[in-house]
UniProtKB/TrEMBL annotation:
The lineage of its organism: Eukaryota, Rhodophyta, Florideophyceae, Rhodymeniophycidae, Gracilariales. PANTHER family: AMIDOHYDROLASE 2 FAMILY PROTEIN, NODULIN 6. It comes from the Eukaryota. GO terms for molecular function: hydrolase activity. This is Protein fluG.
Amino acid sequence: MDLPHHSVTQTPIYSELEAVADATLLVDNHAHPLSKAAPSPLWSILSEATTTPSYPHPACGTLAYSRAIRDISGLLANEMDEPFTSQPAPMTLTPSNSASPPSPHTPTPIPHSETTASDDEEHSLEGPSPADRAIEQQRATIGVTRLATRCFGAAGIAAVLVDDGLNMPEQMSLNEMKSLGIPLVRRVVRVETEAESVLKELVTENKDGVWRRVARPTSPDKKPRTTIRATMFRQRLHQRLSSLPENVAAFKSIAAYRSGLGIDITCPDEVLDEVLRETISSASVNLNSTESFRLTNKVIIDCVVHVAFQTAKQRHIPVQFHCGLGDIDERLEQANPLLLKPLMDMVPDVKLVLLHASWPYVREAAYLTAVYPNCFLDFGLAIPTLSVRGMFRALDAAMEIAPVTKLLYSSDAHTVPDAYFLAARWGRRVVAAAVAANVQSGDLTVSEGKAAVRRILAENAAGLYRLPVQAS
């Protein structure tokens, strides 16, 4: 039977752990850049659904959207009537019995959302209400820079690892994001995007047309013609990944989107070579233009992951994997982290991070962290896009078997700064609640619970990625 969230948050144990969470600066182990454009609507960051003119956006009917509207309303209360300050009023989720003095690192808090929205201001589940649109207008009037300063000031972030492979319009650079109030920003490199660039470069540079030739029989004095393309592709991709700057903290694979997580790194180069030739022939227009080129062939994607692991081992960095929920073009059953088990058996010396709580495959992912020393689990995207009870249950389920030392905070925030704030706000609350439940059940002492909160929110990621941060 699931432990009700509210019964945990009304306890003195929760209040103590909440205070620890609020005093811990977050290490966000997976996020995305902001856009310099006017802030997108809040519903756009809370759902992967597509929009059509015939229907309101599905996110508008979700519990996460109802909660987010109130949270952002509270964050921006009095913003338009008073001079801008990054020091809003204190935040309380439940009455706190803790008498501990605030840490000098405590993130700037905000009022709890229940104090900022009345019943007549509630939004319509059928779409944005006038009150919702007023909040969206306020966000647009403030602008992305001022909104970011407000959100980051309230979020309390020590470091963010940014996957910049989305290539969104007017995407901010890592330095631009750092200037908005994030002390440390490191890069996460999407390996499939790098592979697409490598393939275009090789075809462009090729002088003798080897990329489009049909395979020839092997001769005693020459390298088998059947592996030339495969060898060139592997070598160039390895060279590209190896030469990336030192600010790269991790590689990331989106194989779940492209061909699924059932990755086989034992495919012979002869097969890869022929697949490359066929891919070049079918994509020649894109490869010879500035148009985007998207690799989806499983043989090539599996090769890319193999090279990424080889290079990650040399660079001593982890490889992150998109797992579980995602965009509508994903086949969810192919994003089950259990499909990675054969790969994990073959690469015990490279650390893997399963992203997004692998939701709805949370327990499957937690099991992998329990049996593979090199496997870690983050819970971004699940927080803040699930309901409060859903977020609590996801982390609570992971903690049934996952080592506390293997759980990582992230926001998976993108495009707008509100996403960073919402994830930080509820990440702290949910971690405190899930750990409190396990203290209450006798699995942890209060002291161990406090250490677990700090580990999950910051220390585990700081150690995994070797980040020079002080989180508390």
